[in-house]
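In response to the reviewer comment on reproducibility (Comment 2.3), we provide here a single inverse folding case reported in full, input and output, so that an independent group could reproduce the run without further information from us. The structure tokens appear first.
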């Protein structure tokens, strides 16, 4: 069975960084093949993985409003274009959603997308969805059943409050979430008592567990500035060890 991992949290908390580290972890642990979906309008997961994007699903949806090649149905055309949009790497593929829908109705295009994702999902052991602040893309892709919702916060009161709200709204959104976890990213080392108190309070009052805390990392900053893939980070760096310990905790439960 394919496992769906969705990442959520307010903007700027490091969801994309966590997604890239998760791809590295799953490859390292042999939990492949993996489909990584960049569902943020400000797509940059490909940059952290040092990959180029030729076409996004947003562009494909626009194409569906035009003429379809003779002899093909729209769902066949959508399926073909989605497969063409996949960036294929060893052990994982990357799909980029692109900009949100513009003027006009994309209901039919989103229906074709959902149908295609149903078929596509069968090819992967894990699907990682790096979401924007909202989680609308999950329903568009027909991924309403989530095995792991990873709610990422920065070390701020507002970030942790947002994480708590996200944990509380999954049921009203009719998302079937099996397990949800809080990950606090870019935290000071050591964590201050005040921050720890905010974290503990959020976990106790929301339906989520604390997966762990990732410290602020110069290694990640240097890797991004150099334009090198996060997949090339050495396994003995502190941030990788922290991330792996967190993911081991999540996937062992």
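Designed residues, in position order:
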């Amino acid at each position: 069975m394919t496992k769906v991992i969705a990442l959520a949290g307010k903007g700027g908390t490091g969801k994309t960084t966590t997604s890239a580290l998760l791809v590295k972890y799953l490859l390292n642990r042999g939990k492949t093949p993996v489909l990584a979906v960049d569902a943020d309008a400000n797509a940059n997961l490909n940059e952290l993985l040092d990959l180029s994007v030729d076409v996004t699903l947003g562009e494909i949806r626009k194409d569906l409003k035009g003429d379809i090649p003779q002899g093909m149905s729209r769902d066949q055309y959508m399926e073909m274009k989605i497969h063409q949009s996949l960036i294929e790497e060893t052990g994982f593929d990357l799909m980029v959603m692109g900009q949100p829908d513009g003027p006009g109705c994309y209901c039919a295009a989103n229906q074709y997308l959902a149908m295609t994702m149903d078929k596509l999902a069968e090819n992967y052991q894990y699907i990682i969805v790096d979401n924007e602040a909202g989680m609308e893309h999950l329903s568009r892709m027909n991924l309403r059943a989530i095995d792991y919702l990873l709610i990422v916060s920065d070390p701020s009161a507002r970030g942790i409050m947002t994480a708590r709200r996200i944990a509380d709204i999954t049921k009203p959104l009719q998302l079937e979430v099996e397990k949800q976890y809080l990950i606090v990213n870019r935290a000071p080392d050591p964590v201050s008592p005040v921050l720890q108190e905010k974290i503990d309070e959020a976990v106790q009052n929301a339906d989520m567990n604390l997966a762990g805390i990732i410290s602020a990392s110069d290694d990640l900053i240097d890797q991004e500035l150099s334009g090198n893939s996060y997949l090339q980070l050495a396994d003995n760096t502190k941030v990788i060890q922290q991330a792996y310990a967190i993911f081991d905790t999540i996937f062992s439960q």
